[in-house]
Amino acid sequence: MATASGPVLFQEERVQSTYDASQWRLMRISFARHKLAVVGAVVVVLGYFIALFAEFVAPYDPGAITFVSPARSNQLIPPKLPRIVHPDGGLRWFFVHPLVEMRDQETLMVTYPEDTSVSYPIRLFVRGAPYKLFGFIRSDIHLWGVADGRAYDDPEKVRLHLFGTDQKSRDVFSRILHGTRISLSIGLLGVAMQFVLAIVFGTISGYFSGPLDNAIQRLIEVLTSVPTLPLWMVLSISIPQSWPVIRVFFAITIILSLLSWPGLARQVRGKVLSLRETEYVVSARLDNAPTSRIMFIHLIPGLMSHLIASLTLAIPGTILGETSLSFLGLGLHEPAISWGVLLQDAQQLRTILFAPWLMIPVIPVILFILAFNFVGDGLRDAADPYKS
After folding, report:
1. Separation of CA 253 from chain center
2. Confidence (pLDDT) at 70
3. What is each CA distance from 39 to 26, 173, 181, in whole angstroms?
4. At which of 170, 200, 215 does a domain end?
């Protein structure tokens, strides 16, 4: 009997602790049960880690063309993976064979066969191109690289191009890692602006009725009735081409934010309409509490769980918007590095046929959009922890 009551008592204590837990604790418990959301959160955290430490994680300088010599161009090198099986049949630590550039005399196509007589190991924390981490920490240590004993700027230095090189002999893998910084940060900044606009207009529209509510709703209807892509294109064309990269980045962020807040504002308005009739809000009004206190103390905190989930689902739209505009040539341009800018190299059919690896930047776009959607689904379910 004692053994049978043990699990029962444990289950009762577990249920009681769940009912006594705060809302944020219930959200954490519910989110942890959503396996895809947890995986998506790991991918998102890894992505922003790479964005912060891109110079350290990337093996090569993403923009410098330092490894071109008269003897070899290193243009459009196909992707190569490190090897562990040596030509003699034995297993070794990851290594790479140097490439030999050859041109077919009949087709004039350039190929890069491996020189299997020589091998160079891949090491962690190797010296490479110097950089400034966070803009002020000087270093030349990279997470990994090929240890061949030559200087980083030697054009004959052996390199491993996991995703190949582009038409300007730049390492695609390093450029994708650096592109993470703009493509993911523009999502956060854009969503932060949407957050502010949606809360301000949605809360005002839901709390106050009459002409002010009607005016805000008509504005939202006008913005949502305009086709999104043509409006993006028109506004992006108005950005001067002479602007520096940072100014264009913030201009694109503002454009994407100004056109994306109406949907979230309507969700906020609907939530406020239901919350303003709750007992604690009515009591605050009967106590003659200031309107600002009712909004910031009673209404907006009740919206936070729903807003966090909605904003997480809104980040992929902002990332796709920047990628689409940059791919069409209406957003960021070189020397800026984003996934959309990288995909500009894949606009020509000839490039896709002869260098399909230039389409690889599509993979992180899909990966992180799925990750954000999984996280958003998990947060949306966790926002109502009592439903299950």
Report:
1. 14
2. 54
3. 19, 23, 21
4. 170
Determine the pLDDT at residue 69.
Answer: 55
pLDDT tens readout for residues 127-142? 888 999 988 889 999 9
Residue 140 domain-assigned (yes or no): yes
What is the tens place of the pLDDT at every residue in 296-338?
888 887 777 777 777 887 888 888 888 888 887 777 888 889 9
pTM metric for this prediction: 0.84
Query: What pLDDT is recorded for position 367?
Result: 94
- The values of phi and psi at residue 83, to 5°, are -110, 155
My answer on whether 187 and 316 are in the same domain is yes
Extract the residue ranges of the chain whose pLDDT is less than 70.
1-24, 66-72, 383-388
How far apart (Å, rounded) are the C-alpha atoms in residues 301 and 228? Answer: 31
The predicted pLDDT at position 163 comes to 93
211 and 315 inside one domain: yes
